[in-house]
Amino acid sequence: MATSAELARYEQRFRRAGLPLFIEDFSPTHDIFTRATPLLGFVFLAEMLGATSLKWPFWVNLFAVLGGLAVLIGGFAVLNRLRGRPWWSLPSRFGTPELATFVLLPALLPVLSEFQFTQFLGVAVSNLVLIGLVYAVVGYGLIGTTVWGLQRLGSELASSVASLVRALPLLLVFSLVLFMTADMWQVFAGMPTAFIVFVGVAFALISNLFLVLRLPQELDRIEHDAAAGPPLRRLQRLNLSISLMIRQWMQVLVVSSGVGLFFVAFGLLAISRHVYELWGISPGNWSHEFVLLDHPLLLSATLVKVASGIAIFTGLYYSISLMTDATYRTEFLDNVTAELRDLFTDRTRYLALRAELHEATSAHP
């Protein structure tokens, strides 16, 4: 006979796999914000500092902090009584009143102390953003997916290296030609670091666009191959899509980081100060010289920028290949499908246990 403990074990596995929306009756008020109660409580109490002012002496700010703490605790105590809870208790669920109190009550402190309505808006908007982040991170299992991926980092690395070896001849020709041209060095030497970061973000968005366009049909195939049971709902498919995107990001990060480190090492050996002078390139904001086997080596900001650029190009190529090249796509998705098959099987058993438990409860109210 099904028990609540068995259901809890299945639900815990879904959470650890970064698929919390596989849990039936998953609720933001009970399952998302309550799990973030320590974080929300810490931020709520820390915002008592909003009652202070840089213009006041220390002892006045001390009383302001105590007064702000009293306002926050008193306001939440009143809410608890209105919601039928003991005034000192933490909420067992976060509904609209609790979230509104978290957003608005700390934002009132700057208004009460110095009539700072601009700070009121700043604190309120910051708290709203925090609530949105908590909803996204906890609700869609971003932490669980990341931890799950880190636990399998060895297999992910092996899979990434295996795929990279297939692409290595073309990638090496493409990358080495770029790396050994003065134009490439001149372009990246003149780019601020922030611009290189922007290029990396832009390329990441492009690769994500390819993934988003390919994911619906790939999800249909994965669900058809691995699933046995009711089809996934829209939010569950979204949860699975986010999980697959994080998996791909981790593989791309491993590959691009490895390529970047390789070209830093290669540049140390191949690009001397004489080459910098010949190409008319500055080492950048910083540089360090070493000697290896009586040969001078130069590690510079420009070398790191160029290697980062090559890594960004490689990451874009690799991420697109994972979804468009039949060989890479099959390997990536076959590995994913093999791991998800067990989760889909557990979901089928979980739904059957829920139905059995519901029938038993209905028969013996």
TrEMBL record:
<feature type="transmembrane region" description="Helical">
    <location>
        <begin position="123"/>
        <end position="143"/>
    </location>
</feature>
<feature type="transmembrane region" description="Helical">
    <location>
        <begin position="194"/>
        <end position="213"/>
    </location>
</feature>
<keyword id="KW-0472">Membrane</keyword>
<feature type="transmembrane region" description="Helical">
    <location>
        <begin position="99"/>
        <end position="117"/>
    </location>
</feature>
<protein>
    <recommendedName>
        <fullName>Integral membrane protein</fullName>
    </recommendedName>
</protein>
<keyword id="KW-0812">Transmembrane</keyword>
<keyword id="KW-1133">Transmembrane helix</keyword>
<feature type="transmembrane region" description="Helical">
    <location>
        <begin position="58"/>
        <end position="79"/>
    </location>
</feature>
<feature type="transmembrane region" description="Helical">
    <location>
        <begin position="296"/>
        <end position="320"/>
    </location>
</feature>
<feature type="transmembrane region" description="Helical">
    <location>
        <begin position="252"/>
        <end position="276"/>
    </location>
</feature>
<feature type="transmembrane region" description="Helical">
    <location>
        <begin position="164"/>
        <end position="182"/>
    </location>
</feature>
